[in-house]
Write a structure and sequence with these properties.
Helix content: 10-25%
Number of helices: 10
CATH class of the largest domain: Alpha Beta
Number of strands: 32
CATH topology of the largest domain: TIM Barrel
CATH architecture of the largest domain: Alpha-Beta Barrel
Number of domains: 4
Structural class: alpha+beta
Bound molecules: 2-acetamido-2-deoxy-beta-D-glucopyranose
Radius of gyration: 26 Å
């Protein structure tokens, strides 16, 4: 007894402190014990905070032990110097809830995250900082990034694994090797995060030589995403710096892919495709047997609430739909599907059934019978005070990040010809003369329509421009200013003297004056209505005759709708409803007079319709 006591005492006094989270060549070590990361991506800011606990419990009961989370800088710092952790931005609370659910966290705080989020997570105000160049070793960018990372480090301090919290490690940048190879830039971010977070760091790149060589940095574990077989082999081959080697992690295993507006694709999902599900489970099973780690991108995608969606750039703007369902195992409404159950089976057979908690119960979705909405106010009758400028200026320069912006000009002489709205349409330009829509110029088309104007003196020209989501990936991210950049010209003649109306539409305007009468080519109209439900629950809102716009329920912006699809209904979670007196507002950007009703359905449909504005 005495000897054992003495040895124990000796052991305690001489043993090196165990790193809370570290790794050797083959495995991660949590408090000294091998830890296989069985992870999935789920970003708090795409989920109503009231539902975090439910989604996290469902992650745990699929067998996950770790949640990978992007953090959206633009939402936390909506204005330079601000820090907003209200509502869905209370990420410390999300990570605490994860810990209570038995989950660890891998932090992916960017500052660039991609994530199909607005500008890859960059706040729009960065555009107005002098000498700013994003994603590079630029003093203006590094200084803005540092204030964000430092603040985040303070916010999450108690939640770091080094302080007994669930956050194990943090990613530096995001797939940087697909974008550049400026190692000084990645080293700057690495040092910034090391100081602010004090936890181990990793990088995550595509499984190709140039990507790994561009993104890898000494002192951060180099990991890959995409195909695990390709990624692991590429990491073994191309990363030679011992300080970046360690256990293999597929940091983003994609089951399917995202949905884009006007893509002429149906919703991307493997539901109903047994062969594709088998491929996914066999890949994940293979990773587990290698003693390697993974994160499923996405475990649960959630919703691009309001105007949070980003866009890709192909040969044209490819804006991401409001739904970020992503064909994930846990669908947009938080329901499990057959992918979930198949993966749960794969994980169970690896970790043992007793280590996977029971399934979480699910309430059925609700139907809401047709709600009738009535025209309440025209957008052009609810304008804020204008900003007057000789030449138009971009949205960010008037302190606006998202939504719409209107540019108005009163013709001082007759003018005819082709309209050009600055250097490029940014993004969808609705053109009106004396309140009648005369054309649409839209950057989501490789060859946007052209609009011919024939103006008389005193004619009023309105250019209503929608920011459809800033590009989140590729070289286009360098300049993501919205609205008008450059001059407006008609057949090459510069049009001067503009009234500029910022329309962030954080909430819809209240009605005043006469109700507008919709007709073909009329200007945008807000419709309003109210409804009760028998029992509060989740639903999908269908908008059958509506062309394009935005929906608010009880003041919450549910996001954009657009008949072109593939998304044809909007997720409305029960947490935003009450039994009686729910209010709904729908902005009809292109009213025809046929719209007016919406309904809640329990099964959503996806599909594409022709864009009525693109008739040739
Ligand atoms: C870990 O890997 C490095 C680099 O491949 C090698 O030099 C080292 O011997 C390995 N360590 C162990 C304990 O296997
Ligand atoms: C959309 O896809 C369908 C089926 O693949 C094709 O027939 C049609 O031409 C496409 N439409 C457009 C506008 O690209
Ligand atoms: C995985 O780990 C187990 C237990 O430590 C070991 O028996 C097995 O050989 C390892 N498999 C591989 C592929 O490294
Ligand atoms: C524009 O067209 C109208 C009608 O075709 C014509 O009356 C007017 O003179 C033209 N104005 C200019 C500046 O060319
Ligand atoms: C816009 O037009 C004004 C007046 O013609 C000219 O001075 C200015 O350089 C133009 N700006 C751009 C970006 O072309």
């Amino acid at each position: 007894m005495l000897l054992k006591f003495l040895l124990l005492a000796l052991g305690v006094s001489t043993a090196q402190a165990i790193e809370p989270f570290t790794w050797n060549n083959d495995t991660f070590l949590l408090h000294g014990k091998p830890y296989q990361i069985i992870g999935g991506q789920m970003d708090p800011q795409r989920i109503p905070y009231e539902l975090w606990g439910d989604r996290l419990a469902k992650a745990r009961s699929m067998g996950l032990n770790t949640i990978f989370s992007y953090v959206y800088w633009d939402q936390l710092v909506p204005e330079q110097g601000e820090w907003d952790t209200s509502g869905n931005n209370d990420i410390a609370r999300y990570f605490k809830t994860a810990q209570e659910a038995g989950l660890n966290i891998v932090l992916r705080s960017g500052p660039y995250i991609c994530g199909e989020h607005e500008w890859g997570g960059f706040p729009a105000w960065l555009s107005e900082v002098p000498d700013m160049e994003v994603r590079t070793n630029n003093p203006a960018f590094l200084s803005a990034a540092k204030s964000y990372i430092d603040k985040l480090g303070d916010e999450l301090k108690d939640l770091m694994v080094t302080n007994g919290g669930p956050i194990l490690m943090s990613q530096v940048e995001n797939e940087y090797g697909s974008y550049g190879a400026n190692h000084e830039y990645i080293a700057s971010l690495r040092d910034m995060m090391r100081e602010a977070y004090g936890i181990p760091l990793y990088t995550n790149d595509g499984g190709e030589q140039s990507m790994l060589e561009g993104g890898q940095i000494a002192g951060a574990l180099a990991e890959t995403d995409g195909s695990p077989q390709t990624g692991f082999a590429a990491r073994n081959k191309y990363v030679t710096d011992a300080s970046s080697l360690g256990p293999q992690l597929d940091g983003e295993y994609y089951i399917t892919w995202l949905d884009q507006w006007a893509s002429n694709n149906t919703h991307q999902t493997d539901v109903g495709n047994a062969a594709a599900i088998k491929t996914a489970t066999s890949d994940l099973g293979w990773i587990l047997k290698q003693n390697a780690s993974f994160s499923i991108y996405m475990f649960h995608g959630g919703t691009n609430w309001g105007f949070q969606n980003g866009a890709d750039w192909g040969n044209a703007l490819e804006p991401i739909t409001t739904s970020y369902d992503y064909g994930a195992p846990l669908d947009e409404s938080g329901r499990t599907n057959e992918i979930y159950h198949a993966i749960r089976q794969t994980i169970s057979s690896h970790v043992g059934k007793k280590n996977v908690p029971d399934l979480v119960s699910e309430k059925p979705l609700i139907e809401i019978p047709s709600i009738t909405l009535k025209p309440s106010v025209s957008l052009f009758d609810a304008l804020p005070d204008p900003i007057r400028k000789t030449a138009p200026v971009n949205m960010e320069s008037v302190g606006q990040s998202y939504g719409f912006i209107l540019y108005r000009h009163v013709a001082t002489a007759s003018m005819n010809g082709t309209l050009k709205t600055g250097d490029a349409p940014r993004d969808r330009v609705l053109v009106y003369v004396n309140g009648e829509r005369v054309g649409v110029i839209d950057n989501t088309y490789e060859v946007p329509n052209t609009v011919q104007l024939s103006l008389k003196k005193h004619d009023v020209v309105d250019l209503l421009i929608e920011n459809m989501g800033r590009v989140n990936y590729g070289s286009q991210i360098v300049d993501q200013r919205k609205g008008i950049v450059g001059n407006v010209t008609i057949s090459g003649t510069v049009v001067s003297n503009w009234e500029i109306y910022p329309l962030p539409l954080v909430s819809p305007p209240s009605a005043s004056g006469n109700a507008p009468k919709p007709s073909a080519n009329s200007s945008p109209i807000f419709y309003t209505g109210s409804f009760d439900v028998k029992e509060v629950g989740d639903t999908y809102l269908e908008l059958p005759e509506w062309t394009k716009g935005v929906v608010w329920v009880n003041g919450v912006n549910l996001g954009r709708y657009w008949t072109v699809g593939p998304q044809q209904s909007l997720y409305l979670p029960g947490v935003y409803l009450r039994e009686s007196g729910n209010s709904i507002t729908v902005l009809a950007l292109e009213p025809t007079g046929d719209e007016g009703s919406v309904q809640g359905v329990t099964t959503r449909k996806w599909g594409n319709n022709p864009d009525p504005d693109m008739k040739s």
